[in-house]
## 1
Amino acid sequence: MNPRDLSFLHLIANASLVVQLVMLVLLSMSFVSWWFIFHKWFVIRAAKQQTEDFEQRFHTEQGHGEISAGKRRSEDGGSLEKICIAGLKEFQRLRGQRGQDTAVVLDGTRRAMRATFQREMDDLESHLNFLASVGSVSPYIGLLGTVWGIMNSFRGLANVSQATLQNVAPGIAEALIATAIGLFAAIPAVLAYNAYVRDVDRLASRFESFMEEFSNILQRQPPL
């Protein structure tokens, strides 16, 4: 048998329709997952930088006895800045109402920050479930193509008088390609998902710590 008959392109081009469909699905999933991997990398890196910049600016202002960090909103304001703005606006609104108890004002401030916090976390966690799904499902889809290809190889043996490796090698090879593509799609998705979940959890901890710190700062503000 010509060795070139077992080249990847030849095997894929001559694979059965089901195996080709499996390969197409896996390649599509891999392409989309790689797009999300790079997209989330830029998004999370920007979120980290924005958080560090805002924390530095916020603590610098606190060193001068100010709480003006949330009064302005830059065009590229990060999640932490949005949380601060939401809390400060609600604090100023409630404190401006006569007869409001301090505990009620602080509770409303925390709820405003918590609502913004949840929206920002939803944005940061978007598309991570897709990466998890690709990582968990792709090997099984590849296995489906492998099983189908091997079944076709053994079914083809019914038409020959003597079974040889030459008869079954192409079918088994094309079947194993489906498994390889499934692993190629799954492994990067799983690695990226684990890394991004860890980064998002760390950002969430920083946001929650800031909300507690900011609530304590507002609690010390003198009444109007």
## 2
Amino acid sequence: MPGWCCPVLNAARESELVRICQEFVRIPSESGNERQMASFVRDVMLSLGYDRAEIDPCGNVTGTIDLGGDGPCLLFEAQMDHVDVADPFEWEFYPFGGILQSGRIYGRGATDQKGSLAAMICAASFLKEDRHPECAGRIAVSATVHQERIEGASSRFVCSSHHPDLVVSGEASALKIERGQRGRAEIIVETLGKPAHSANPEYGINAANHMVSLVSVLSGSFRPVTDPFLGEGILELTRLVSYPETATGVVPSRCQAVFDRRVILGETRDGILSQIEEIIGEAGRSIPGLKASARISSSEERCYTGVQIKGEHFVPAWLLEREHPFVKRCLEGLDSIGLPPIVADRPGFGTNGCYYGGVRKIPTVAFGPSFQDLAHITDEYLEVDQLLKGCLGYYGIAGAVLGN
């Protein structure tokens, strides 16, 4: 952007950003238990000069900065919940220590996505502080709940309250612009049988045996559709359970298989489900007595505020053209701040971006510090260099998108 000056991340700003990231990591915030984190995020936003910072009914925190004029609303969004630690004794560094060592911040959520959140919050504050007169519009930074449990569900509250025109999701993208992601469906296939004592299985119908046969048919018959950029709409078995779960000596009367189905452009909820139902129908010709059904799974979760959010586990894919004006502006912003203006050559993970880009059709990209293979791992960490560059990237993107 001609005439737009790159800010300097001076020692004071760098120290502040690193400290905020460490403090975020030190607060445990599993899905449904984000209250302390939310309160701290709001306080940080207000202390950094945000015009408003509010907690909505389901517990998301959204801070806004009004730059004046008639520009668009640019939303930066990152989750503030994280996956379980499981066994903390497997960690070399305490999962909630926010320990800074050898240029890395260690702790659960450092990469996914507390580092992105800290960088977003600081970038918007620094942009306001630097008072670029050519910038107009509004910046909203949202820290969302329950992303790990129900993808995109809490984002509905953010979208309905703040009406963003453009969205940047804080996915760990190695500082590259991701212009699309596959969607996701979780499909439950269920077989029904007849209970009997396992000493006399001939009196029952074993639902688990039927499921084993059905899974084999599904594996052999399913043909994933393919997108040249997003890849394959794969179907992956992730869980098997028979019922009654705890009983011994009982022929299972019911069995469930859970499949993760990745969704590409043009695929719909009903189309995906009917594809599985068609294969089940074909399997019935080779599996005597098969009784089976398929459905999209759903969840209902209680937020820390007491509000319940629910929804089906289905979000569509989204993809922007490489030449889309929003993508080009984001690249201009990275270039203006001295970062390589690179578009990722592969799609990112599923994020809340699937709600904004897939469901609401709002121009959306994913961008963030760190690397996808560091998410959810033991001794998760974020490189400080990535954190600082991530903040610069958000600053540059906001300046380019909101600049006249």
## 3
Amino acid sequence: MPFRVALSGLNAASADLNVTANNIANVNTTGFKGSRAEFADLFPISAFGVSSTATGAGVRLSRVAQQFTQGAVNFTQNSLDLAISGEGFFTLSDGGATVYSRAGAFGTDRDGYVVNASGQRLQVYPPVSGGSAFDTARLSDLQLSTADNPPAATTQVNTAINLPANASPPANGTFDATDPTSYNHTTSVTVYDSLGAAHTASLYYIKTANPNEWDMRVQVDGTDVGGANTLTYSDSGVLLTPASGDLTLPAYTPTTGAADINLTLSLGDSTQFGDNFGVSSLTQDGYTTGRLTGVEITQEGVVQARYTNGQATPLGQLAMATFPNPQGLQQLGDTSWGESYAAGQVIRGTAGSTNFGLIQSGALEASNVDLTEQLVNMITAQRNFQANSQMISTADQITQTVINIR
């Protein structure tokens, strides 16, 4: 009997050493979660249950429990390196099979799909029309495209200017854009046509003989767009005409072959105060063609492609997953896990929502293995192995003594 008990102890100590060795071997594995060997004692059971005088029958390995504590977050220079700060797993597609991981070292393959070193594709919720929301009922592969971002024609120019209240009409009463004496003030803004070509829109302000009244003329690339547009202000300097604050200009046909440019000037923020002309803001809503400059991933897992024209196009939102019992997940290797009955039904969501951590772009989660703790466990398991070996030697000596009795 002592041989069996000691042998079970040897097996248990060996299993403990195996678990410890695996933890130590993966101390530098990104996203690795250490394990702990858990043991249970054995007692012989008869038809009448366990006798109160029965001695134990040894020990057995009860389970190897995975430890899903947070690993340290180490920062890198790669925007596709992702770390989860808190609960949750990345969702990956392994040839159509769904797997889960905490290792966020991602790159792109030759087709632009975001993958890990094993070729598993990162899953996102695709954007819906407009890109302001995402379809959380559907998963798709995250793919980066190197195609140019298409241009958008300017449709609105927003102006926030101040016209001097004490201005006098210009010396030359006939407007001529080349003659500064025919207007009081001017400013300009770059606008874009449907092909992304840039054009200069110049705004000229001319004080009339009437109090609180101005004429505004617009030229695009030196060509008049409509005639004089009357602006009137109240005695407190607030714009009265046009009443809506918006001035719609006639269409301008560019020479680039693009569609007509139809501009609306928003003048609601213009004023007539003091004695100085000033431009507080002059913006427009068009942009030219853009080239991909990089990828940005927010804390909520929203993936955006950024372009040289200042635009950002949403590509998807990272699909996060968690489980009622993560320790029950099936280990698949390559720092990935698969669903199992013991883990429970998968719960999907997004980063930053209830029960899900935040995403840190340009960072990786290190292994959660504490090397010092594992070295202490190794010494303890070694001592246990030696003690059980000594137990076998002692039982052998006793057996030999009994055999030698004459």
